[in-house]
Design goal:
The protein is mostly helical. The chain has one domain. Helices cover 82% and strands 0% of the residues. Helix 1 runs antiparallel to helix 4 and helix 3 packs antiparallel against helix 4.
Amino acid sequence: MNRPAPLRRAAVLVAVEGIALAVIGVVYAVSALLGAPEDRLAAVLAGVLAVGAGLALLLVARGLAAARGWAFSPSVVAQLFLIVVASGLLQGRVYAVGVPLLLIAVGVLWQLATRECRAVFSDRG
């Protein structure tokens, strides 16, 4: 099957999101185990959930790269969540994190909205 360049770019961006989230989750969980958080169990659980979400995004990225129909909706929903998180960060004046997150989310949605990607996923019937 022909995989257009915008679909490959979207898959790469979603994979970057997944890797970043998994790494953040591992760092958060390890720092919770080694540090002295107020609620160690909740902190470790948050880290584990972040790792799980990162792995799920990697699975979605793999599905996008293979032009699997099931991967389209989760990738769009993930970007919508990311836009919400980024806008909260921007409202809190955390521009160094909010702006890149917003740009990545909009970039993925832009790539998925191209005519080539829509043609790949509309052929699913």
